[in-house]
Please model this.
Amino acid sequence: MINRNQELHWLTSHLTRDERQLLVVYGRRRVGKTTLVTGALDTLPMTSVYYLCDQRGPAHNATQFASRCAETFDDISPTVEGFVDAFEYLKRRVDGPCVVALDEFSYLVETDETIPSVFQTIVDDVLAETAISIVLLGSSISMMEEGVLSYDSPLYGRRTGQWKLAPLSFADMREFFPTEDIETQIQIYSVLGGVPAYLEQFDPEQSLTQNIETHVLSKGAFLYEEPEFLLRQELREPATYMAILEAIAGGATRVTEIANEIGKNASSMSRYLKNLTELALVTRDTPVTDPDGRGVYRIADDFLRFWFRFVAPNRGPLEQGRTAPLRDSIVDSLSTHTSQTFEDVCQQAVQTGAFPVACSRVGRWWYKQAEIDVVGLDDQTDTLLLGECKWTASPVGVGLLADLEALTEDVRWKGTERTVQYVLFSRSGFTDELRRIADDRSDLYLYTPRELAEFFASESETHE
Model:
């Protein structure tokens, strides 16, 4: 379990309190919820029961859960009518503190809308005088937020804590490949993103190209069909969602563009995009200076962006085992693909505590045809940070700085009272002329990936 120290501390500190707990851990599939919770249970000085729910309904799951409890206490499986009976049985067998972890609790909520009410009874009545804590895990973000966490849920007010587990940041992801230089780590991040289950697939002993061919392009590999499995498990009409994600990966970012690309009416897109957003597979971006403005859609996960850009359109040849042509094509175009990830990495660098300009909000900015890759805002100091990122083979010169400075007046935030700072990020460094200019200015910062590594190393240390 890499770099989940903060989450692990939160979980174990709650579960070792004198008061019984009802905790909710949720997040997209493969993000590491099970590993986190089972890892925490292994460290606890008390009895624990872990059960993975399935989609066969509450009655079947209650019976199987009761059997799991019986196994824990070396007992004969009891006959139960539902989860209330199962927890009544557990209460009779437990003497002292105990933790129950119900994984994929969202399956129960999905198949029976009364489940939150059932567990309200369990929490309020069955376990009232016990030291039995419950951890509910779920991969359906919308189901967990609406069925468990929302004000309308019968369980509202009962929980003692919740944690939405996110994919690993770039700073944390680097520990999966500690021997690689930061440029290669950024490229790997552009292919796999920050989902631990995906990062585990690549062999650190193989080159990036070999890993892509072996673990992504080859039929039968874990990652070869992962996006399809994910969508089929989470959504109806998976073919439509596949088409939408492929359209976004291909450059269609606005609702009308996506609709035109897949041959549907724009008015029908909102439901699909809402579902993808709730699953944290797609994100709606707005200019950082205008959070309520018109947005564009991006694939939130770098692996899905890679897969729908390169794998989905080439399934025919890949099904026949013809990986070499696509592998070579990816090598030629990986730099373009990585450039968007590099922008995300630079934004993350700006948000580290070691970055010299403090920013409370960081994102992109655009207006009509003008765009800026990195914009940071700090309301306390009225500081505006403007930055550009270049993942190119040539050093960046003064032209990029001039272009960025020319857009300054177009970024409408805080009027004339603000302080403006500039930052340029470049894979291949900077010309001597630009470096001389930076040496004479206190409002201009220049960073290569190697220099960014220091920010991320500092950030990782704060997580330990």
User: Anything to note?
Assistant: The mean pLDDT is 93.
